[in-house]
Amino acid sequence: MNRERAEIFLRLLAETELRDPALRRPPAVRSPDAPFVVMPVALAHAAWALTAVGALDPETAEAVLADAELALAARRPEPQSPPEAGVISSAGPGRAAGAPGSRRFARARLPVRSGQRTPPASAAEPRDAPDRYVPAGLMILFHDQTVSGELDLMSYAHTAAGARLVAAWQTRDLLTSRRRGPPPIDEFTVTDDRGNRYDLLLDPKGRSHPTCDLTLRPDPPPDIRWLEVTAPGEKAVRVDLVGRADPPAPVVSDRDLSAGEHLLNRIADRLLAMVAEFPPQVTPGPLANLAAGLGVTIAALEAAEVLSPLSPVPGQLAALCASLGARGHGITAAPAPDLPEPWLSMLSHYHRRKPDSAPAGDGFAAVAAALPELDGLRLVLLGLHHCDGDTWMNTLACGQLPPHQPGPLRMDKAFPLSVWVRDDAGRWHVTRPVSWSEHAGEATLTLRLAPPLTRPSDWIEVRAAWQSAEARVTVPLRWGYPP
């Protein structure tokens, strides 16, 4: 890694981009929600990429962007609105104020300070017992005079941060058939095999609606055999915590990837996930905005010596952009003739005449499997649920969590993994983190599958790729009821 060359490249890129005649045009009237000076897309994306791989510290990259912003503001006569405190400019790609329709400009945002995360004041004390993860797969019905619903228990997890049940819920108003808020957890009773009673604390922890963590208070003993959960007016439902089959053993293999190749693979994941969220024929802008400046990003990674000029990944990325119809990427490498199997699976899905098969019905499946710790980070699978046409995987990340670093179109350095799911029909699904909540050195994560499952699978294979290694695990899905 060559940090000196990385900084020189970024500064020379800023000078080159600011010579663009388009930047000298008078600015158009800005909308109230985007009053700041905008950056060239190539500069913003290259700065984020260099900090994401550690070739530049955020302060240096922020200084280069700040100098470019000042130079850009000096070329425009009207006064600029002051940025937020501690922030040079706002996040996300966008259009240039003076060049309607252009995708060469973006508003860049990098963290002002770098470094390790500060542990929360409420971090749990270390405990001697090993972590415990158990699948549940149980449905608890509840009702009163106006509301009925169900609480779906997907898994039980007990770590240094405490014990919790990972759950989803559905509630409906009996008078209007409309969905209601969370279930009345404070009216539930929980006991264990020793007669101890617990309170349940509903904690969304940033998980996607309608899922949550149900934290047990006080913290139960590490070796309890079962829990009984009772809703008002209903029979107790027992959650068996022993007698389960041995958890599936993951298979670990080495990966010979550079930091630049790993980052480009994650960008490819985001491109494929974005097609599900923003079909190009409907909203072509987001896909084109993410692809814009990829050629410069690749050049920046090569200058920092974290990407070899002989790497096949840029060619694969060029072929992917061509297949998705994402133009303006600027990649000079020739499109590769062969692409990874998961990419081909998703491209085959998108290129069908009717790619949107009927989604699976709402449902949940019990999952509990821990992947090994690699590159200082461990991923734990704690349940799968399908709701409103989308499929979500609830997970837990433990270990050395990088600092948050927002990037183009919701890419974040804080989740440095590439996670794919293969269903029992052989179809691959890319995942994207949609929530992130930290506590006591752990992060609860919800991963969205793209495309969603179209039918209940008996099993899934989860592939999590770090930079130096890859872990695969095949887990059975115990559906709480047929989705």
Provide a compact summary of the structure.
The protein has helices spanning 3-18, 41-52, 58-74, 259-277, 284-291, 294-303, 313-324, 341-350; strands spanning 39-40, 105-106, 132-143, 147-159, 162-173, 189-192, 197-203, 211-217, 226-230, 237-240, 251-254, 363-366, 369-370, 377-387, 390-399, 418-423, 428-439, 442-450, 459-465, 469-476, 478-479. The protein has 483 residues and is an alpha+beta fold.
CATH topology-level fold name of the largest domain = Immunoglobulin-like
Characterize the biggest β-sheet: 11 strands, antiparallel
- Compute the number of structural domains: 4
Q: In terms of structural class, how would the helical and strand content be classed?
A: alpha+beta
Q: Uncertain spans, ≥5 residues at pLDDT below 50?
A: 25-37, 82-109, 111-125
Question: In the CATH classification, which architecture of the largest domain applies?
Answer: Sandwich
Shape summary: elongated
Question: What proportion strand?
Answer: 25-35%
Number of strands: 21
Our measurement of the CA-to-CA distance between the termini, rounded to an integer number of angstroms, reads: 49 Å
Mind explaining what this structure looks like?
- It is built from eight helices and 21 strands.
- The protein folds into four domains: 1-115, no CATH class; 132-240, Immunoglobulin-like (Sandwich), CATH 2.60.40; 259-351, no CATH class; 356-479, Immunoglobulin-like, CATH 2.60.40.
- The strands form three sheets. Strands 11, 12, 13, 14, 15, 16, 17, 18, 19, 20 and 21 form an eleven-stranded antiparallel beta sheet that branches. Strands 3-4-5-8-7-6-9-10 form an eight-stranded antiparallel beta sheet, with no helix packed on it.
- With 483 residues, the protein is of the alpha+beta class.
